[in-house]
Amino acid sequence: MGEAELDSQLVHTLAISAASKQLSLSPFIQHYACAYWIRNNICKKECCFFEKDLREEFCKCGYSKAAHTDEAIKPEDFTGETWDRHRHVREVPTDAFGDISFGGLGQKTGKYARVSADTSPESLYHLMTEQWELSPPNLLISVTGGAKNFYLKARLKNMFHRGLIKVAQTTGAWIITGGTHTGVMKHVGQAVRDYTLSSSMQGKIVAIGVATWGVIHNRDKLVDPEGCFPAHYLMDAKSQGKLTCLDNNHTHFLLVDDGTNERYGVEIELRSKLEQCISGKRLGHKESGVTIPVVCVVLDGGPGTLNTIYNAMLNGTPCVILEGSGRIADVIAQVSGLPISRVTIDLIHQLMKKFFGQEYESFPDLRIIEWTKKIQDIIRMSHLLTIFRVSEDNQGDVDVAILKALLKASRSNETQGIESWRRQLELAIAWNRVDIAETEIFTEESQWKSSDLHWALFSALVGNKPQFVNLLLENGVELRDFLQEEETLCELYQQLPSCFFLRKLAKRVHGSRRSRRRTLRIRPRARTVKGERISLTHVSDEVRHLLGKFTGPIYHPSTLTHHLSMSVEETSVTLSKLQAASQALFRQDSAEAQRNAGRDLFLWAVVQNNKELAEIAWEQCRDCMSTALAATKILKKMAKEGSDADQAQEMLELADHYEKHAIGLFSVCHNSDGERAQKLLVRVSHSWGRTTCLRLALEADDKNFVALSGVQALLTQIWCGELSVDNPVWRVLICIVFFPLIYTGFLVFRRDELIQKETEKKVERKTVETVTGSTFRTNSFGSHLSVHSLQRMKPLGCWSRLMGLYSTPQVKFYLNIVSYFAFLFLFAAVLMIDFQTTPSAGELLLYIWLFSLVCEEVRQLFYDPDGFGFHKKSKMYINDLWNILDVLSILLFILGLVFRLTTELFYMGKIILCIDFVVFCLRLMAIFTISRTLGPKIIIVRRMMMDMFFFMFLLSIWVVAYGVAKQGILIHNDNRLDWIVRGAVYEPYLIIFGTFPTNIDYAAFDINSCSMNGTDPLKPKCPVLNENQTPAFPEWLTIIMLCVYLLFANILLLNLLIAIFNFTFQEVQDNTDRIWKFQRYELIKEYHSRPAAPPPFIILSHVYLFMRRMVLCKPPIIYKEFKNKLSKIEEEELLSWETLMKDRYLQSARQEQSQSTERRILDTAQKVTTITERLEREEESSSAAVLKRLARLEEQVIQSTKALQWIVDSLKCQGFAAKESQTLPAVVTDESPDSVRNTLEKKDSFHVNCRQFHYPNSKLTRFPVPEEKVQWEVSFSCYMPTYYASEDCGDHMDGSEPEALDKYRNPGGRTGIRGRGALSRLGPNLNLDLVLTRWRDSERSVLEYLAVLDKSRGTLVLPGGPVDSADQLPATLKRTLGKKLYETINANVSEGTKVFEGYMDDSRNTDNAWVETTVLNIHLDRASQVMVDVNNMVVSGHSGLQWQEVSSKTRLSSDQRHSLRQVAALHNRKF
Q1: Most-buried pick from 223, 433, 849, 1037 (CB within 10 A)?
Q2: What is the DSSP letter of 1284?
Q3: Rounded CA gap, 882 and 121, in Å?
């Protein structure tokens, strides 16, 4: 594999892989690939044996004879057989798949496939995620309930629609329903429709309908062996008959086919398998330990829905039931809050009658008993059951109820501890529901460490969930700890979404890899591509490119090794040398550049243009002003280099946002303390490559920031130097001429001003202390500065005052202006008076003067205190208009001087020097840039010159058009170029300014003013003449042309120019002040670094600088006015103060936002909505309360009527009344709630596991035994349990009852099955659980027990098994413990303590056989031989023995956990 190919693979790995997911092929190729896969992997079912049904032309499969193949009508293989669904239905490739279009308003489209009922769920999942390109879900919502249309109250309907869509939208869930246009499926479809109509993000909600193919109306429109793209489906509910239509608001359909027609419920089994398959998939990335959660949402429903709820909860799926939706949902909701003992058969009868109405009459009593048992089991699993009640204020919307139900289920599925909370937090992050995390996870009960949440913060950052990032930071996550390791930050950059910076970074990694291979001479290998990773060195280099080369690296060279596949012999020496050199080079920088976690996270967010995450990270930064300004520079640079216009615009908007942050923060700082704020501007920032805030703002072209009054105050202070900024200009000018005045106080120096202010403050403080008698306190930082400043600040000496005056940039500027005027005066005098063949003394002085100017320009070009580099510095130099004029004037002067020194070109040289004088005069305009009044006007002039250029281009079209036409009409074949240009260009141009031509009118024609043949060089050629010696051209045409030309040129174009100038003035006027303040910096910096002496004396300073640099080899003088490196203590104090100011700024910004009009409108609307909902809720609750009271009153009236009727009948019968009163309770024993309640009070709870419907390891189903019928004392006349004994052939069910069974009765009560079951004998089956305990150490701090790993289930259990007597160990432990150890412990059984002995609720128990368990605790001494033997067994690992701590975190079954709790109490240990 070649090097170029490897490099292309590397770029693909780092950048293109992220973007390739967003690329899409053409629709034709997609359809072809999808159809090919479906035809080869998805099947349908068809009948292969036609057998007549009661209807002559129909088969028992339900399809007509015409729908069968010829082979099925005349089969050869099934002759004489009876039709069977399992044998006479076969699978063939499906013939119905593709896109489905429902037409109508909105043209809703979706995808569908006809699938066999035996299709693998994995194939269906692959179909949906790969072929249909659905993103894997973070949550699966299975909506079930009434299949027929039912009524939902408006409020409940709205809450269901809103909540369902909200949870699907926020979590990225899949909604699975029956897919038809009836019942609950129709409501789900309406919710999706409402969302689609109200949201611009169409297609985000995934609603999958799993329906039966044989009951779909108009399904023939969906059939096409090659696939339909699309299939036009017609919804015709009026003519559907027994069939049903698909719902047009679902997005995907799986149409389940079992080969039959018009038979409902075919899809139930496959749908259940599909949901189980999806629930087994990993949530999010493959490394996640959490699987996709599933929740069942129930509305309305009948007996089938009850079975669905029951089976779902047995599988651990939480269910959310909407109270008020009707039928079985309301039945469960009514009893959910009651204790099990009160959920009786009689109560279920009443509720069924109430909510099912006439349908209740068809329910048999045995079914009611079965449903009662299932309802009791459902409400017993309270951790999986959530009832959504509209009337409760704290319930929230349906989405909150769904998510809380899942968290409640996950909380109970695992042992309470950090693992449980971690699972819940991982779910909440996957759903992106920070509200759920706040209320359910980050509570007072949960204790989090910063390190425990690092994975969550990483997941939230990579998943772009800023609200979770904020929540995690608020709950104790330390960014410094999180980003302490370089690998974490490198991994974050590795996980960047596809963006411009990632592509740039990939190219840089690619380039560094090639250069490193070239340097180390490494041969390219295929496996090196996979090992290459992004390092912080790559990030630092790319950020430095974006910030500018004048900055240093923000990260020191990475110590992480690049994963290159090369031998140690080849590279060990080379790498060690390179690392040693790089470490020596950056040792000093790495000591200064401390890792800034807030900066690192902010940079990671900014380079991907993520505003929300960047905002959170900026709040965590310390050097926040530099950080905001650096962001503006990075974003503007990326916007300039990027090719995507939309992304560039977003970057510029984010750059403006952070410029506003910098402006707001600096304003707060300056208002609080101007001196400290100015220090922030010029402080060297180690976080951003040893640059300053001011330099970053200038490089980022942040004009608004530079134009701030505080920044301008700093520039003014630098401009005035040692002088006070309050000195009038005229005083400065006088002192420049009469410098002795500076010693008289005529001119105020800044040092004297500061000393005077400090003295006044001191006097004022003493006065206050004298008057009040108390000590006047100041802030520590301010007092610290005052003391030290007073110690340092002494009045300036005479020489210092003189040097302070003439080294001030302001004074340098004035002296240079005077010098420049003198230079121009001398230049003009030489040109006009003293320009001789031999240069005079004045001219020689002019040459020396110019040479000093050239030297100064060279010094400005090479002077680079900021470290820009020659390339950047020269580019900045050329971009300045005044520098261009300087270079042009110098080049013209040199050219004129060369010509002037030659005899032949002497006069030409003078002409060039005269033109050069014009350029020098134009350069004089630069002196106005410092003026606050005239400086902005210079900017306007420059903009108008640009407008003038484009206007002249437009004007030249008219001038040339008219001039050429006029010249061609008047003059015939003039071959003199100068007169052609004069006539075609010059004269039409002069016409605009009022010089009208005389040769276009006969009356003004003078033949003496022109030459007939054009032989006179001083006269124009005459126009064509006729016989009368008058012009022959058409006078009317030339006059009309002149009028039209004047109309357009004079009136239209000139007024257009005025309008353009006016527009430019109005547009620029508002920004000129800002632009002038921005450009003022360069002028101030130029004169600050300029030598004090003006030209031509400045040449002496240049000689001194040259000698200092080249001969003495001394470094250039570094000034602190623009770049000040503070001490460590002072920098820490300044940054702490800046952080405090940032908090104030953010607080004021939030207050301003909360008080804005838009925010108030939103708050008011939300309050009105809340009040309206509460009023509606109260109205419904009050009406419901009235109805409930009326129903109770009606019930009491009925009971009173029955009682009166019974009294009347008793009186009539007289003597039989007493007997009837005695027999009445006996008759109603099965139904009397009072007798049941009395019985239940004797025992709080009954066995539960041994009443489960499905008997373990068999296909048997128990007879339903409700809670009230468990005890043998309670009559249960219809109790008919099945007989089962595992030793029979198969699972024998003959209903026989041997006489031996009557001798044994389960002491716990009825179980729903008779016989021995899976147990070894009738009656009690003894079992012993051995709990071996020890102290972990000699201090007895931790109690441990011995557990055994059950390899079949992968869980820990207590060692134990069946026994014949509780005085000996189970024989099964001999294999686990070993023969020797088994015999030793068995001999000590009598020394053990029986923790528990009695009946055990085992799922194998029957009416005639049950398990009785003895829990035996044997505590081992640490020094005993038994302890040594046990430890040897544990260390060997062959037996699966493990020592575990006795605590609540133990993962055992509920019964064994209870036994372990008793053992802990025995040893006085908290469980």
Answers
A1: 433
A2: E
A3: 76
